[in-house]
Write a structure and sequence with these properties.
single chain, alpha+beta, 7 helices, globular
Length: 254
């Protein structure tokens, strides 16, 4: 599978990173484990620490970068993991090496042992990084933060293109001015709610999140940019999904 020619379809030179600078991954894998109250949360934490996180570091292959615990989401409790890849081949090779690792398989067997199943259900969504996405390394380990995962659904691919153009143009600058600094921008390549724009934003706490979004919503430049995009391409974001997470204590980036 080859990466889609998204840059060509969007046609915005400003979206491309400057030559010589580190670029963002081309793909993210979003894994979501839907749990129930009881032992499942503690068990999956042990598995992720002693399984995929440990094995990927030991084998030198990509693995979970963010491990997030739901604070407010349609299904709770929930654990979300985000891994980053330069290519589909890199993802395939990493998963092949991890599946062949005896220590990881032992951790998996231990996780699945017991009367209660390890989770209620599980999903995977493959995200394609937007050309203007920052390097994931810009998010550094530290104090656990609040993470907001947003999905904007566009009615058509044409309107999704306009949404990406607005983000790559004025919107991100207005974000940053008001204390909103997403660590990834993407669209779903394989998964539900297409076409869409998906992005993840850390905040120090819930109060900082509320303050930043209030400032953004009142920003005259944002009000102008939104009105101009609607006049040009219609309502380019028709529905929104928002989930709040906190960085797990064992997350490589949090």
């Amino acid at each position: 599978m080859q990466r889609r020619t998204f840059i060509q379809s969007v046609g915005v030179a400003a979206m491309l990173p400057a030559e010589g600078k580190e670029t963002a991954p081309h793909y993210y894998l979003l894994e979501q484990y839907y749990l129930k109250n009881g032992t499942q949360a503690a068990r999956i934490a042990d598995y992720l620490k002693n399984g995929p996180i440990e094995a990927s570091a030991r084998l030198g292959v990509p693995g979970p970068r963010f491990v997030l615990e739901a604070v407010a989401a349609p299904h709770m409790p929930q654990i979300a993991c985000i891994s980053a890849y330069a290519s589909i081949d890199e993802m395939r090779d990493a998963r092949k090496k991890l599946s062949a690792d005896s220590k990881l398989q032992a951790a998996l067997a231990q996780w699945e042992t017991g009367e209660e199943p390890p989770y209620e259900s599980y999903s995977e969504v493959l995200l394609e990084a937007a050309p203007y996405a920052p390097p994931l390394e810009a998010a550094t380990p530290g104090k656990p933060r609040i993470f907001e995962l947003r999905l904007y659904h566009s009615p058509t691919e044409k309107q999704l293109k306009a949404l990406h153009e607005r983000f790559a143009g004025p919107e991100i600058k207005i974000f940053h001015r008001n204390g909103i600094h997403p660590v990834l921008y993407s669209s779903t390549l394989i998964g539900p709610s297409k076409p869409n724009l998906v992005y993840l934003t850390p905040f120090d706490d819930l109060a900082a999140r509320e303050k930043a979004w209030a400032a953004f919503g009142a920003d005259p430049d944002w009000i102008k940019a939104r009105a101009e995009s609607i006049a040009k391409a219609g309502q380019i974001s028709s529905t929104m999904q928002i989930s709040l997470f906190k960085g797990a204590a064992y997350s490589p980036l949090r």
